[in-house]
Amino acid sequence: MSETPRRPQLMEIDAPATRIDHDWEAFVKRPEATQPFFGTATLITGGLFVLLLGFFVVQSIGWIADLIQQRPWLGFLGAGVLGLGLLLIIWAIWRELSSLFAVRRMEDWQEALAEDADDIEKARAAANGYVALLKANGAIVGDARESIRGANSVEQIRNALETTVLPSLDARAAQATRAAAAQAFGLTAVSPTASIDALLFSVRGVRLIRQIARAYGLRPHGLATWELLRRTMSSASLVAVADMASGMLSHAILTNPFAAKIAGEVAGATVASQRMYRLGRVASTACRLFPRRSGSED
Prior knowledge:
This protein is mainly α. It has helices at 24-28, 40-70, 72-112, 120-136, 144-149, 154-164, 166-190, 194-215, 222-241, 244-251, 257-287. The chain folds into three domains: 52-105; 113-164, no CATH class; 167-287, no CATH class.
C-alpha cells in the first residue's frame, strides 16, 4: 500500500536569520586619512633644485654685472639670455604644477559625483568645473551647462554629463586603447627577447595612460603622469597576475618544438594585447569623472 505523498510545508521562523557579514565593505573601503600634497622626496628634490638654481642665478648676475662694466652690449646680451632661460624654466614649472593640480582637482570632482554623494551644490560645482576644463582644452561641451543647471539631484547631474560630454570622451579613450592593444600585439610578436617585450610594453603603457588622460581633458606632463601612474599602479599590477596561468598554458599546448615556438609567439602577443587593453580600461576608470554605467562597456 503506497503512502500518500506529503505536501510541501512552510516553516515558520520567529526571527529573521542574521546576515552573514564578512566585512568586505570595510576591507575595500578607502582610508579616510588624506595624504600630504607633497611628499618628503618631492620637498627634498624641490629644495635641491631651488638651491642649485639660486646659486646659478646669483653667480650669473655677478658675472653679468662685471661684464656690463667692461663691455656693456655684451653684458646686456648675457642678461637677456639669462632672463629668457629663467622664463622658460618658470613656464615649464608652471605647466607641471598646473597639470598636477588638475589631476588632484579631478579627485575632488570624482568624490563629489560619486554614487553615494548627496551634496547637489558640490556636485554641480564639480560638474561645471569639469565642463570648464574641457572647454578650455578645446573639447565640444554642447548644452552641458544648461543640463547641469536644470538638474535637481546628483544622479541627474551625472546623467547630464553622461549624455552630453562623456560619450565623445569615452570614444576617444576607447580608440586609443584599441590602437595600443593592436600595437602591443605587433611589438610582442616581433620582439626577440622577453626583456625587450617588457620594455616596449612599459613604454607603450605609459604613453597609453597619457593618451587616455588627454582624452578626458587632462594635460599630463611629468608630475601629472607620475600621479596617474601611482593611481593606476595598484590596479594595473593585477593585470599581469591574471595572465600567469594563460602564459603557462600557452607554453604547454604543443610538444613539437617548432609548433610550440609558433604557438608560443602568437599566444604571448595575444596576452600582451589583452594586458594592454585591460590597462587602458583601468586608466580610463582612473581618469573618468565617474564610473560607467553597467551595460555600457565597449
